[in-house]
Amino acid sequence: MRPNPLVEAITTPINEWWCRSLDPVDVAVLDSGVDATHPDLANRVAASYAVENVNGDPQWRDVPGPADNDVFGHGTAVAGIIAKLAPNARIIDVRILGPEGEGSAACFVHALREAVRRNWKVVNMSLAMPQRFADVARPLCEAAWHQGQILVSATRNMPRPDLGLPAEFATSISVDSDKFEDPRVYRFRPGEIIEFVACGEAVTVAAKGGGYTTRSGTSLATPVMSGLCAVLLGIFPGLLPFEVRSALKNHAQMAESEVMADRSRSLADSA
Amino acid sequence: MNSARRPLEHFGILPESADADLLRLVLTTAVETIDADEGSLLLRDDGTGDLRFAMTVGDPDREEKLIGERVPVGRGVVQLAAATQEVQIGAPTFRDIKQTERETGGPEAIIAAPMISGSDVIGVLTAVTFKHGRRFGGAEAKLYGRLATVAAVLIEQHQRISGAEGRIAVQTTAMHPKHNKELNEIDQALSRIASRHPQALSHIAAIVANFEAAIEY
């Protein structure tokens, strides 16, 4: 009898994931665009789009590629991390930041709606939308969860009253940043709203226009988790969002105190 | 300087005022705390979205050259910080992944932290270093983000107080139309004192209270 995929996902050591046969997985990158002409992203960007603010309304348009669709270089760095970590990831580039820098929150919501409608398997959001969009964004994220999509979102770097959306939603795998030597190593923080902490410090990333640069922050930690999700789903395509989260939690580093706290919480829940 | 009006004055902050000194103190503290070489405060032009240099610490000559200079919308790490409302850390671009052949000039590293008032970005606080191989990290970015928030609150409070003072002056003159000229003169004198010698305000308050008590009784 074939083992339960969740059990197999939990018991397969993370180092062995890359030795398995990986199905292709669509990973949408909602960001400043992606430079698909960068050597690291050659033949990795399956499609490019732009959501632009036209007279106050977000408008979706196709960007013929491969092209440099990136305005700021942020999305290229993010996509480069995913491409490197997940050889099976098919990058879907959705540019939501325009050169004018305005209307990006409305464009972000529009892009998320489209990502849900098109059912791209993993959606990486290394940006945060303002709190006033919570009522619009929450049902979209719930719809994504119910149809099996994996949303991966960055928490804010800035001290603000909120942690950032969609990172605050339980339907999203939310990510903070720290320094790790190995990008496949990450932490899980049980009981925290922002549950995962991944490598986002002094990361060498692909630069818009070719070449490489160094960046830091939650924006760079988020694609690490998206890449890991893409690899996991490449091995076990049928995993549901809660199963992906469980597998990721199981493979995460946890401090001894966190392990004990987590066990106490589990015991309390089952009592 | 490429503009007759300095960016800080656009927000009603005179260059020699106590609020400008306080902003400079915040910027200097920020730069020194993370051991950067220079730091700048850029303010957003609402009309165009461009960011304009309002203040620079670290090199007085560069400050004279930079004040009023524009960073056009949609360009670089500074505008990325404004567009995303997040702290951004930048470094030069290299041709190779081992980062030996440098492709771009400029500083070795930069932090850009947005100054947010309500839901709007009113400016960006930056730090740069020219030390070879130096990079800024997440802890420095968080600290810079906090200090950018302090700078934003300072400007926000200045605007609120200026607005309230203006409303009070208008109300007072409306209530006593025969004495408009005198009231205006008093109001202008107080505004000048408030911006040049804010420590004198408590003395003036005491003098006015004593005077009022003397003429009432």
Q: Could you please describe the fold and organization of this structure?
A:
The complex is a heterodimer of chains A (271) and B (217). Chain A is 33% helix and 22% strand. With 271 residues, chain A is α/β, with parallel strands linked by helices. Chain A has one domain: Peptidase S8/S53 domain (Rossmann fold). The longest helix of chain A has 18 residues, at 218-235. Chain A starts with a helix and ends with a helix. Chain B has helices spanning 7-10, 18-33, 60-66, 76-84, 138-175, 180-196, 201-216; strands at residues 38-44, 51-57, 70-71, 88-90, 109-117, 120-129. In chain B, β1 (38-44) and β2 form a beta hairpin. In chain B, α2 packs antiparallel against α5. Chain B is elongated. Chains A and B meet through β11 of A and α4, β4, β5 and α5 of B.
Percent strand of chain A equals: 15-25%
Identify the biggest protein-protein contact and residues per side. Answer: A-B, 39 and 40 residues
* CATH superfamily (homologous) name of the largest domain in chain B: GAF domain
Radius of gyration of chain B: 22 Å
Question: Please, how many helices of chain B?
Answer: 7
Overall number of strands of chain A: 11
Q: Give unreliable regions of chain B as ranges.
A: none
Low-confidence stretches of chain A: none
Which CATH class of chain A?
Alpha Beta
CATH superfamily of chain A: Peptidase S8/S53 domain
For the largest beta-sheet of chain A, the strand count, sense and barrel status come to:
9 strands, mixed
Tally of discrete structural domains of chain B: 2
Average pLDDT over all residues of chain B = 84
Query: What percent of the residues of chain A sit in helical stretches (DSSP H or I)?
Result: 25-40%
